[in-house]
Design brief:
It contains three helices and four strands; from the N terminus they run αααββββ. The protein is of the alpha+beta class. It has a four-stranded antiparallel β-sheet, covered by helices on one side. Helix 1 (9-60) crosses helix 3.
């Protein structure tokens, strides 16, 4: 009796199906890793902006709205945010390295609000920096608020939670 050493069509289809199933499982796990990497990159960029803004405020001894020349950069659009980031970088002496930070990992622009409760009797400002990623899973993880008072230069800061 003659035996064949070739694979049948069914055997080949089963092997291809198993390989396809394994590839889809790997791709799903890689999407989770990519998402975590995007969160980490955005948080790192936001902290660079915050540290640069702190340096600029300390160098000029002024609230952030006077450093940037705007009381609401995110209200004025992307070009105003880019200009505000440049002014912050210049006022901080270029030490914080924000000159190349423009877009978040999702392609949106980082947002900057330098006029929340500015002035008043306490002369404190609560400034916010956040990523405008539009992703409901992570938007609360990507907003950083800092409170800075001129009479007490050491401010409070922290990531905002839902």
């Amino acid at each position: 009796m003659k035996t064949s050493r070739a694979f049948t069509l069914i055997e080949l289809l089963v092997v291809i199906s198993i390989i396809g199933l394994l590839a889809s499982v790997v791709l799903v796990s890689l999407n989770g890793a990519r998402y975590k990497a995007q969160l980490t990159k955005a948080r790192s960029d936001i902290m660079q902006i915050v540290h640069s803004a702190d340096l600029a405020r300390l160098n000029l001894n002024e609230p952030l709205m006077f450093v940037t020349g705007s009381n609401c950069s995110y209200c004025s659009g992307e070009s105003a945010i880019v200009a505000a980031l440049k002014k912050i970088g210049d006022a901080s002496g270029g030490l914080a390295g924000i000159e190349n930070i423009r877009n978040d990992p999702w392609g949106g622009t980082y947002q900057l609000d330098e006029n929340e409760t500015e002035g008043g009797s306490t002369n404190c400002s609560r400034d916010r920096v956040w990523a405008s990623n539009g992703d409901s899973r992570s938007s609360y993880l990507l907003e950083y608020q800092t409170t800075y008072c001129l009479q007490h230069p050491v401010g409070t800061a922290g990531w905002q939670s839902p």
